[in-house]
Amino acid sequence: MTRIYFSESSSELRGFESAARSLLKWFAEYGRRFPWRGEVGWYGVLVAETMLIRTRAEVAEKVFLEFMEEFPKPGLLCSSELTRVVNYFRKLGLPDRAGRLVKAVCAILSSYGGEVPCDYAKLRELPGVGDYIARVILSRVCGRKYAFVDSNVLRVLSRFYGRPMSISETARALEESLSQRNLLEVNVALIDLGASICRPRKPRCPDCPLRSSCSSYPVFLEK
Ligand code: SF4
User: Fold this and answer.
1) Is the distance from the beta carbon of residue 189 to the nearest atom of ligand 1 less than 6 Å?
2) In the chain, which segments carry CATH 1.10.1670.10?
3) Which of 31, 70, 148, 149 is within CB 3.0–4.6 Å of 27 for a Cys-Cys bond?
């Protein structure tokens, strides 16, 4: 059974502890299993997150697997013709992302000796690496205490607390309220909950592990 540890300085998400326990229990049973959630290193994480921006994970999964089969190593990607890379991103309707990914991967090879820099500012200097991707790399690859807040996480926590929350506020609250060892798992569980239960339209509140303490639960039931 998953154990959960909280920071002593828990602030804005005070009261989230028991909800997070329920969330992790739910995640252990219903969490989605995507190939990039395994040990894929900085290269696999960067490729996946570049594909996932504004793309549904289920759609990106097949393209990711094909891509990693053709370009299993960063060096191979760097020495390949760009048109071969673009073809994969075209399948996602995002051909312009290919060039930025290749530039970022080549920069990591040439400037950092093939080790991703575990530094927010340096990551943001890489082509195509915005705040979200930088945070995912820092959390998943570097083991640092960074939350990554996508539209799913934002929606779930805004509904849970019954008020609009900004991305930066939500990230800060998660980082301050959860211990490092739980932050990543809770973060990913919130993404999956938002994608499958707390959906933008017609959330499945009766199936939600957070319903007993969610501020919006009665609201959505009454609609
Ligand atoms: S109870 Fe409903 S509104 Fe609240 S977090 Fe769960 S799915 Fe979202």
Assistant:
1) no
2) 17-32+145-222
3) 31
Structure tokens at 15: 């009261």
**Average pLDDT of the segment spanning 160-186:** 90
pTM, 2 dp:
0.90
CA of 203 to the centre of ligand 1 (A): 7
Task: Give the distance (Å) from ligand 1 centre to CA of residue 156.
Answer: 7
pLDDT in tens, 34-85: 999 999 999 999 999 999 988 999 999 999 999 999 999 999 999 999 999 9
167 within 8 A of 146, measured Cβ to Cβ = no
pLDDT tens, residue by residue, 51-63? 998 899 999 999 9
Residue 113: other Cβ atoms inside 10 A: 7
Residue 208: name the closest of 216, 199, 198, 218 by CA: 198
Comparing CA positions, the residue from 160, 153, 172, 222 lying closest to residue 19 is 160
Assign 148 to helix, strand or coil: coil
Q: Which of 100, 108, 49 is nearest to 73 (CA)?
A: 108
Query: What is the architecture of the domain spanning 17-32+145-222?
Result: Orthogonal Bundle (1.10)
